[in-house]
Design a protein that fits this description.
Blueprint: E1 5-6, H1 15-18, H2 23-26, E2 31-36, E3 39-44, H3 58-61, H4 67-78, H5 91-138, H6 144-153, H7 158-170, H8 180-193, H9 195-205, H10 210-216, H11 231-242, E4 255-265, E5 271-273, E6 278-280, H12 297-309, E7 317-325, E8 336-343, H13 349-365, H14 367-370, E9 372-379, H15 383-393, E10 396-397, H16 405-408, E11 417-418, E12 424-427, H17 429-441, E13 446-448, E14 451-453, H18 455-464, H19 469-476, H20 484-495, H21 506-530, H22 536-555, H23 566-589, H24 603-616, H25 624-643, H26 690-704, H27 708-716, H28 760-774, E15 786-789, E16 792-795, H29 796-807, H30 817-821, E17 845-847, E18 851-858, E19 861-874, E20 877-879, E21 881-883, E22 892-903, E23 916-930, E24 935-936, E25 940-942, E26 950-953, H31 955-968, H32 971-974, E27 997-1000
Parallel strand pairs: 4-9, 9-12
Antiparallel strand pairs: 1-3, 2-3, 4-7, 5-6, 7-8, 10-11, 13-14, 15-16, 17-21, 18-19, 18-24, 19-20, 19-22, 19-27, 22-23, 23-26, 25-26
Length: about 1000
């Protein structure tokens, strides 16, 4: 009799609790089981019932090799692995699992019950807090923070606090406690937006009202000088600019600063200043202070008689002097105006010098307040002021006893002439860059090492390198000569030119090499100011390269074959010299600071002018009186933003682009070029040695241009030779030639030079303002606001305006600000100079309503978008079409509306050659997309539905278009790609539901 295969169990276990009986239900096992007299045996299905091996048949013995049985025995002895199927457990294991789960369930049930009991106990206490929380989240209570602050200060309960919030929401309670931030925020609204905006903010956000702000404003006004500025006037203006930020200034030590000078065009009209009882608007150089008092109508008669006789002149521009501190602190480095005066551009260098000295004396008198040490004076390329700068900063050579002599004495060929207190002159980079560009645009051209370069020759080289005719024409026929980005792009195009091909003819090779030399000068002058990755040492080496290369070219030029006009060369060298001198002074006085050369120049003053334009609108110009008022406001704005820099965005204006070391543009989302935009941290003055970087720049030029080495060596052999005296004599002491004029004689004149006046609307506005002011009273005023005319009192401002308009303003001036400043008529009869008319271009164009494809961001990916053009802009002009070759230009922007693409059916495409069909317009409208990201398409059309034509595409074409657009992507354009929210209609989906994706972002 076969005993079967005997299965044994561990101690304390039995077959009833350990054997997995459910496996017989789950699997088809080759044995059965039996349990007799406490013995558990397995019997093979093929058992012979007769034992042969230890009482068991061969079939039963062979069960020991069965893998399933081996696994069962392992689990009986070692236990079942947690997470296994329940069929592998015995009854004892299943019982244990059930017991554990019951314990877990009981624990969770009790925990839930305890939590519920706790919440029931706390419900009543949390109720009011929840109500307050929802009231705060609703944002229906203006100035919630002040309401809660008052409630906490009065130790209110939650119920009382909730009642206070409800009353504030209903408008029956108004928190009155305004803090400094509320006052500052309201003052910004009042100054930048006017009284109307301030009152709207008062009702909408419960900020201080305009009348409250005016009543509590104690900032002293900035005064405009009616005639020759006085020391007292300048000192008052310094107090107005610096007293409110005195806590931000250092209590000890000095702050280096530059005094900046620039002009702003103003309306030629007289205005009465109610703060001084003077008449403003006349040139400070030819007006007498006594004759500008306004006490009676006789004063007006005398004033206008003097104007008719030519003894005085109306000011066409206002000269603004401002202080710019050299500090990386964004709250302090904005320009702060200290002097405003009118000018008719007839002053000589001596008069300019007198004003500059007076401004410097006033700053020195207020050093206890400002802690400012003026190290340089800066301006643009104005010739008469440039002569005054020379007289101020070229008094003697740098003394060996000077504390900066050690740093600068080792600079070979450096000009070491200085003024009092080692003062130096500075020139603004942007003006120099425009003049470098203008030198290329002159018909007379420039000369580089005996090679004549004219605009026509330069255009040939640009055309041969693949620049389109439209691109070249836009560069060489600019509509705005003050366009900084256009000037930068032209210079960048030139310094990007490679060497001429070996197969080129000799003349072509010579002109290309000469052009590359001039381009190298422009590159080394510009690059240190626009590359945010350069260290201070690298910036100094670039400027040294520019100085030595320009000197080597200028030294071999004669009076008839100059590299550039002599004034331009002088200003470049003055700018480079001032950088080295400024850093040398910083190494002595403030060795642990970082120095930003971008703070040198008048750019900060022009930024202030941008704020002025924001305050008055972009289609209105200032007169002298308005300029003084708005500069007072802009100073308040600067002081407020000095304490709250997080509120400031800065005016949008023409600016240089930010670039990296490999000349890649930083995305336009980056801020203006300022200390905060600089990525390099190695800008500490203590880490640079001026003589080392000066020498490295010279050696770099000699290595790249071997011909420059003997020229520089020959120049250095003259002990009196410097970068400003190549032949031993200062260039500004030599007479200038006709070729030194930076404007062509054949320049197109300004048409219709009639006497300009104010527009009728602005005149009425001034009259209304005069009426409003006449009804206000100020007990501290020392003079009357009215003057007697024909026995009747007349407001002085209105009487002056009426008398001036009736006597001089006979012609309606242009309502356009720029044309009005040029004194053009409103209706211009003379034709303008010839301009390029894109609308008449008959080549391939992209027009409004044309189909295009582009790329769109959606959920972190780029998708292809099909759309129709809705608008096209070149710069700020809207046009109907644009040539395709002009699309890649930075000035071209295209707006389009997205169109739905759906899988095509056989009705729409009977040929079945296309799998996508256009449908309706989607609610996605993208504005001002760069033209380079727009790809015009010419798809097939489906006309199977009468009156409803559709575009047809195949997937292969769409993928090719996607690849083409993707290849154009650069880092500078990533931020310009529009974004779209995902919807059921976009991204486009195929029949299988797959998105048409381009690439991951």
């Amino acid at each position: 009799q076969c005993k079967g295969y005997l299965l044994t169990f561990p101690h304390g276990e039995s077959a009833h609790s350990s054997y997995p009986f459910m496996l017989h239900h789950t699997f088809s096992l080759p044995w059965d089981y039996e349990h007799r007299n406490g013995i558990f045996a397995l019997r093979a299905h093929g058992c012979r019932e007769a034992g042969s091996i230890n009482g068991s048949c061969k079939e039963c013995v062979d069960l020991r090799n069965d893998q399933i049985l081996i696994g069962i025995q392992d689990r009986i002895t070692q236990g079942v692995r947690e997470g296994s199927n329940y069929s592998f457990y015995g009854l004892g294991g299943l019982t244990e699992i059930g017991r554990r789960k019951e314990g877990v369930i009981q624990t969770l049930r009790l925990r839930r019950l305890n939590d519920a009991r706790k919440l029931v106990g706390r419900e009543g206490a949390l109720d009011d807090a929840k109500r307050i929380l929802f009231a705060v989240a609703s944002r229906k209570v203006p100035r919630m923070n002040i309401a809660l602050q008052n409630a906490f200060a009065r130790n209110m309960s939650l119920h009382a606090m909730l009642d206070l919030i409800n009353r504030a929401a209903e408008g029956t309670y108004h928190p009155k406690s305004f803090d400094d931030e509320d006052d500052a925020r309201g003052m910004l609204m009042l100054i930048l937006g006017g009284g109307r905006v301030a009152d709207i903010a008062h009702h909408a956000y419960r900020s201080p009202a305009a009348s409250t702000l005016r009543r509590h404003d104690t900032t002293p006004p900035i005064l405009a000088s009616p005639s020759q500025p006085t020391l007292r006037e300048v000192e008052q203006n310094i107090n107005a600019c610096f007293e409110s930020i005195s806590d931000l200034l250092p209590s000890s030590g000095v702050v280096h600063a530059e005094v900046m000078f620039d002009e702003l065009a103003v309306e030629k009209r007289p205005r009465w200043d109610d703060r001084t009882n003077k008449i403003l608007g006349f040139c400070h150089g030819c007006s007498d202070s006594g004759s500008l008092d306004f006490n009676s109508s006789v004063d007006l008669d005398t004033l206008f008689d003097d104007l008719d006789r030519g003894e005085i002149d109306l000011a066409s521009e206002a000269t603004v002097r401002a202080i710019g501190m050299f500090t990386p602190e964004p709250r302090l480095y904005s320009a702060r105006p200290i002097l405003i005066s009118g000018t008719c551009k007839k002053e000589n260098a001596t008069e300019h010098l007198t004003l500059i000295k007076m401004a410097l004396n006033a700053i020195n008198n207020k050093k206890s307040l400002t802690h400012i040490h003026v190290i340089c004076v800066g301006s643009d390329g104005e010739a008469k002021r440039g002569k005054a700068f020379i007289g101020l900063t070229y008094k003697s050579k740098l003394s060996p006893l000077s504390n900066i002599h050690e740093s600068l004495s080792g600079l070979s060929l450096m000009d070491l002439w200085v003024g009092d207190d080692d003062l130096t002159a500075n020139k603004d980079l942007k003006h120099i860059m425009k003049r470098l560009c203008s030198a290329l645009l002159r018909e007379k051209g420039i000369w580089i090492r005996g090679v004549h370069l004219t605009p026509q020759i330069i255009q040939i080289h640009l055309r041969d390198e693949g620049f389109s005719p439209l691109h070249i024409r836009s560069m060489f026929k600019p509509s705005d000569l003050q366009d900084i980005p256009l000037a930068f792009n032209l210079l960048k195009d030139i310094w990007s030119l490679p060497s001429a091909s070996p197969a080129a003819n000799p003349a072509y090779t010579r002109t290309r090499e000469a052009l590359r030399i001039y381009a190298a000068i422009c590159y080394h002058v510009t690059f240190p100011y626009v590359c945010v990755d350069l260290s201070l040492a690298e910036q100094l080496e670039h400027l040294s390269c520019a100085a030595h290369l320009a000197l080597s070219v200028f030294s071999v030029s004669d009076s008839q074959h100059k590299m550039a006009p002599t004034p331009l060369y002088i200003d470049i060298m003055l700018m480079i010299k001032n950088v080295y001198f400024s850093i040398a002074k910083a190494k002595v006085d403030t060795p642990n600071i970082r120095f930003f050369i971008i703070l040198l120049g008048t750019d900060r003053l022009e930024t202030l002018f941008g704020i002025l334009r924001t305050m008055i609108g972009n289609d209105a110009n200032l007169d002298i009186y308005q300029l003084a008022l708005r500069l007072t406001g802009s100073t308040k704005v600067a002081n407020i933003l000095a304490k709250h820099p997080e509120w400031d965005k800065g005016p949008r204006r023409l600016r240089l682009p930010l670039v990296s070391k490999d000349m890649k543009k930083i995305p336009e989302g980056a801020d203006h070029i300022n200390p905060g935009a600089w990525r390099s941290t190695d800008l500490f003055v203590k880490s640079v040695t001026l003589s080392t970087h000066w020498k490295r720049g010279r050696r770099s030029i000699e290595d790249r241009f071997p011909w420059a080495a003997p020229v520089l060596a020959d120049t250095a052999s003259n002990p009196e030779a410097t970068i400003l005296a190549p032949n031993g004599t200062q260039l500004f002491d030599l007479p200038f030639d006709n070729d030194d004029c930076e404007e062509d004689i054949d320049e197109v004149p300004v048409y219709c030079t009639t006497a300009g006046g104010n527009s009728e609307g602005l005149t009425r506005l001034e009259d209304a303002a005069a009426d409003a002011e006449s009804h206000s009273s100020d007990p501290t005023r020392l003079f009357e606001r009215t003057v007697t005319v024909n026995g009747k009192p007349m407001d002085k401002a209105r009487e002056l305006a009426l008398r001036y308009r009736s006597r001089y303003d006979k012609t309606a001036a242009s309502t356009d600000r720029l044309r009005r400043v040029q004194q053009e008529d409103r209706y211009k009869t003379t034709a303008d100079a010839e301009t390029y008319d894109i609308e008449c271009f008959d080549g391939p164009c992209l027009s409004v309503l044309d189909p295009i494809v582009s790329l769109v961001h959606c959920e972190g990916k780029l998708f292809l978008a099909f759309g129709e053009v809705t608008n096209i802009h070149i710069q700020s002009s809207s046009i109907g079409k644009v040539p395709l070759e002009l699309l890649p230009e930075n000035t071209v922007r295209v707006s389009y509306q997205m169109i739905l693409l759906a899988p095509a059916n056989i009705e729409q495409d009977p040929s079945e050659r296309h799998d996508w069909c256009s449908s309706r317009a989607l609610p996605y409208h993208f504005k001002a997309v760069p033209g380079i990201m727009i790809q015009p398409v010419n798809p097939d059309t489906s006309t199977t539905s009468p009156g409803d034509p559709r575009y047809l595409f195949d997937s292969g074409t769409l993928r090719s278009l996607s690849s083409s657009l993707q290849d154009r992507l650069t880092r500078s354009y990533l931020l310009s790609i529009p974004k779209a929210a995902v919807s059921s209609e976009f991204p486009y989906r195929s029949r299988t539901g797959m998105h048409f994706v381009v690439c991951l972002c």
